[in-house]
Each structure stands twice: as C-alpha cells, then as structure tokens.
Amino acid sequence: MSRTHTQPLPSKEASLFRQLVEQYEEKRYKKAVKTADQILKKFPEHGESLAMKGLTLSNMGADKKDEAYELVRRGLKADLKSHVCWHVYGLMYRQDQDYKEAIKCYQNALRIDKENVQIRDLEGFVATRNTLLVLKPNHKNHWIAFALAHHANKNYSVAVEVLQAYEATLTEVAPSEAYEHSELLLYKAMVLDEGGRLEEALTLLDSSKDKICDKVGMLEARASLLLRSGRAAEAEAQYRALLALNSDHYKWHEGLQAALGL
C-alpha cells in the first residue's frame, strides 16, 4: 500500500536533495540526475526526489518526456501531500503549454481554497477566480491564480494586467519572499513573450535582473527572446555565455546554431 506522505530524509540525503534542486536551477541536469539517483538508491519511494528527477529529465530531450512524467506521477503517488510534487507536476504541464492541467496542479500546491474549486472549463474558472479576488483582494494567491486563468484562456494582455495590478499592491518584498517574487517576474516575462510582446519581455528581464534569483533561467529566456526578435548577434553572445556555464546543454547549442544561421 502506497504512503500518502513521505517521511523526512536523514540529514545526508536532505543535503543531497538541496544540491539536486540547486543543480536543476543551474541547468546542470546530468549532475542533478546523478544526485537524485543517490537519494533514490537508499529511498526509492521518496516522492520529491522522484518528482525532481522527472522534472530534470524533461529538460534533457523530448525522448525522455514519457519517463519524466512517469517519475513525477510516481512521486505524487508516494507523497500526495507534498507541495513540491504538485508544483513540479504543474511545471511539467506548463512546459507543454497545457495550462488547464497546470492550474490544477498549482491549485493543489498553493492550497488556496478549502472548498477545492473544480475547473470545469476555463471561462468558468476565470469567473470563479474573479469572484474570489473581489471577496479577498489581499490574498496573493488569488491574484496569481486569476492571472493563470487568463493565461490559460490565452487572454495574455489581461493576465499581464492582473500581474501588474498585484505588483502595485506591494509596498516591499520581504527577504523571505524574494525567490517567489523572482519566479513571478520570470512568469510575467513568459506571458508577455507568449502574447507576442517580445521587446517588453526583454525590457522586463533587463530592468528586473537584480530582483531575479534564477540568473541562468533569466539568461536563457533572454537569449531566446533575442533570437526570436531578430537580434542574432546579441543572441549568439548570450548563448555562448550560457554554454560557458554548461557546455552539455543541448538546447543552448541549438540556440547558438540558430543564431549563427546554421
């Protein structure tokens, strides 16, 4: 019988798990997989390690996508109460632009509603989030979920406006929330990108570089935006800088080749 919540890791493996997360964030995917395997060798059903290994594999080639999803699902089965597992599952769906499923996962990860609002359709979800936002305007997660709902419904401009409205409510960002705010900025840049506002996304990344914790993720997003904006020389320089950090990253090699017109 599977457990619904994984026991905490011993100190050695807990330290390895922190390394795993850092390696993933730094795009050192091969090392991250090895670190995950070290943990899973002793704790084969550790949900969060299974999920992180799956998320890592999803960034190592389309041929690993099925295995990646299977690992994340195994992780969730082992630890249904883990916000990490649900967040990772949401990231997987977001990568594949399946925002309807991503929202469900983020809902579970954030645990924003005791009522556990069901998403029957996107338009209904937008309406529900709007109602909750009106009722609880100071609840941060309602703002984010409302933006996600519009994003999923391809209302990119409205999603950006919601994020901007939320930012306007912030007087300052507490140090403990710096990383979360950083992720929000990267998410806003992604929405601008998908809405066709590439230059605005670039401007946002450049103006927020001191606030964004995931420097490699920011540089990667910037390189892609430069390439698709027709700024090939700048994109080339950005991809070369990224490859200097990790020469094994196949997507960055593809980006460099595209920038060089190969």
Automatic annotation (TrEMBL):
InterPro entries: NatA_aux_su, TPR-like_helical_dom_sf, TPR_rpt. Keywords: Repeat, TPR repeat. TPR repeats lie at residues 83-116. GO terms for cellular component: cytoplasm. Pfam families: NatA_aux_su, TPR_11. The keyword Repeat applies. This is TPR_REGION domain-containing protein. It comes from Haematococcus lacustris (Green alga).
